Automatic annotation (TrEMBL):
Membrane-traversing stretches: 12-30, 67-88, 100-120, 140-159
Protein name per Swiss-Prot or TrEMBL: Uncharacterized protein
Keywords: Membrane, Transmembrane, Transmembrane helix
Length: 163
């Protein structure tokens, strides 16, 4: 890294990584590309499609409610990632920066953020149900499980909060 680890906070780096993931892979351009150019029945195609889960859109054909719920999921994912990165004590309790506990705390933050973002946005759907909320939370947690390692890597070596 150019700036070194003493200038990088673990929650800040993880939140920035989450924001980049949502902005790039949640974009309408990537979502359209991945649907047109990948096969959902292969592992690579499945994973590339999974990256587009917290999509956001500008499509004027969708109802306002669908646009808001989709965008809210992406926004909540980033906000909840930051919140869980500050709340999870794994990297705070570690004796040295860059330990495996810091990696797992970042990864777990993204799993929790994905699950809760999906659960909360389900409440704003036209006909929310408990089963729908559970399914959405499971999809969000699955997204966090398979993509959250990127957040875990981003948090490695950063300091917690103030020095």
């Amino acid at each position: 890294m150019a700036l070194g680890n003493r200038y990088k906070s673990a929650p800040g780096a993880g939140t920035l990584a989450a924001l980049i993931l949502v902005l790039v892979f949640g974009s309408p351009w990537y979502s359209d590309w991945v649907v047109d150019n990948t096969n959902a029945n292969t592992a690579g195609g499945w994973w590339l499609r999974l990256l587009a889960w917290p999509h956001w859109t500008f499509n004027s054909n969708d109802s306002l409610r669908e646009i808001i719920v989709g965008d809210l999921k992406a926004i909540l994912l980033v906000i909840l990632t930051a919140l869980f990165l500050y709340l999870l004590p794994g990297s705070q309790l570690a004796r040295a920066r860059g330990t495996i506990s810091q990696f797992f705390a970042g990864w777990a933050s993204y799993i929790f953020a994905g699950g809760f973002a999906a659960l909360l946005t389900t409440l704003f759907l036209a006909n929310p149900s408990l089963l729908g909320a559970f399914n959405a939370a499971g999809n969000g947690a699955a997204y966090g499980l398979f993509v959250g390692w990127i957040i875990g890597l981003a948090t490695l070596g950063g300091y917690r909060g103030t020095k």
